[in-house]
Amino acid sequence: MFAKPLIDTRNPLYCPEDSPNQYIQRLQKFRTSSQRGLDSFTRRLCDTNSWIQETSLNNPSPFGTDRQLPEPQSLKHKITSDLASSSLDFQHVRKRARSDSDQYSSFVVTPSQYHPCLQKVLDEFPLQDDSSEVALEKLLPPLPAVAKPSASPTRLLRLDNELYGHPIGAETPRAISRLLSDLSHELPGILLKSRLSRFQNITHQVIVDILGLDGYLARHILGYFRRSSIERLNLSNSLIAADGLNELCPSIVLDIFSLPNSFTKLTCLNLNGVYLDDFDLTRIHHLPSLSILHLNNTCIGNEALVSKPLIFSHRLVFFRIGHLTSLKHQLTELHTENNPRVTDDCIPSLCLFPLLLLLRIFGTGIQMPGLRKLASSIRSASREVDIDIPKDCETYLNSLHAQYHLHPVAPMITDPLACPHLSLNALKANLAGHAVFNPSIYLSGSKVELIHRLRDILERRQNDRIVKEVVWGHDSSEDGEGEGEGSEEAKETVSEGSG
After folding, report:
1. Ranges assigned E (strand) in 257-302
2. Helices marked H in 192-278
């Protein structure tokens, strides 16, 4: 843009060693100099290639120490003379014609041009006939021979024991005697044979009951009974923190149930008082005959009972059936008392057990909203389930006469669907009849608010009656509690409101 560069004396980016005028003069001198067309570094390197080859052939060993290097002054003079003699117009020189056959000929080195050291390596490891690759079988050591697995009877027996468990045999006197000998070797000093001497008929079930009562059912002991036909198993005394062998973690013992062909006849499992993680139940949820499960005071939560959705291939799939829901088609008794982490969130999963006949949820965090859903599901399926409800729910059911009018009569309504068809005075009259038993019921508000308030009361009354019928086995309409003076007063209030 400018004929001459501008000089800014106040610019702090100028080199402090040279003044601006000196820098401009040196730049102009370089632009007008004939040396600005010097060859590139690659060109200079190619021109000195012959000198490098001559100096490299003086010593046959590239790694030797007797190589005679040129003097620094002669080397400097050689490079300077080569640079000065190079033509400035080399770019105008026409290149020679090249055929397609020698396109890559400059990169191919003939055997005669090999260095002596490289020639020795090639002589020791000759190249293949049609390729330039070194024979790898001569460079690499031979592979060791793979030993074939032995099919000895001892190894086959060991693999069979790992897959199916210890060969316990039938419940014959000879097999029982051999089993007691093995157990006495595993548990020396407990006098197992003397304890079983008072039993006339010793079976596998009797042995397991005695060992479980004293807390000796460790994992290696349970391995002896994997093939047995025991139906009951009590692991409480073996896994609690006070007595028994007490493994480091209950999952170590419960992991034996995950092995194939283990405890296929087991119907009752007792884990009361054992501190369990929710994931520990994944080790028992596949037992084919399990129908009674005791999990009282085990600190389990909703994850042990609730089906959790997982995202799989961008789809919502109920895959992880949390662990006990996979037993829904075989479980008939479930004991989960004194587990506060079990709340109303597990109610949808509990509704999936169609064969459940006994449910113990005392001491859990389940409240009346969840209990109403569970009772409605049982009632709609026409099933009978013995339920032990929490204390708070039992207290609420015993005080229904203080919540609303238990047995309203005309002109009071009992159908929640009829609320939108009532007039404003009729709504207030129905609410006033329930307010006689529960003074916290408000009678003021718009018509829409009164409709929702009365509908909630009537729906809650219907669901509470279903809960009492399912839990206590009789209809609440047969009870006479809450009647008397309060009922007569409610009739008079409704009559005055309707009038």
Report:
1. 268-270, 292-294
2. 192-195, 204-214, 219-222, 236-239, 250-254
Decide the pairing of beta strands 232-234 and 333-335: unpaired
Q: Which pLDDT tens digit goes with each residue over 112-156?
A: 555 555 555 556 555 555 444 445 455 556 666 655 555 577 777
Please give the full DSSP string across 218-234, using - where no structure is assigned.
-HHHHGGGTTS---EEE
Return the SS3 of 61: coil
Rounded Cα distance between 286 and 453, Å, is: 47
In sequence order, what DSSP letters do the residues of 103-129 get, joined into one string?
Answer: TTGGG---GGGS-HHHHHHHHHSPBPS
- Hey, how many other C-beta atoms are within 10 angstroms of the C-beta on 479? 16
Whether residue 355 contacts residue 329, with contact meaning beta carbons closer than 8 Å, is answered with yes
The whole-angstrom separation of Cα 458 and Cα 209 is 52
Question: Which pTM value belongs to this model?
Answer: 0.63
Q: How far apart are CA 468 and CA 74, in angstroms?
A: 114
CA dihedral 86, 92, 94, 95 (to 10 degrees): 60
**DSSP letters spanning 368-399:** HHHHHHHHHHHHHTT---EEE--HHHHHHHHT
Query: Do the strands 268-270 and 232-234 form a parallel or antiparallel pair, or are they unpaired?
Result: parallel
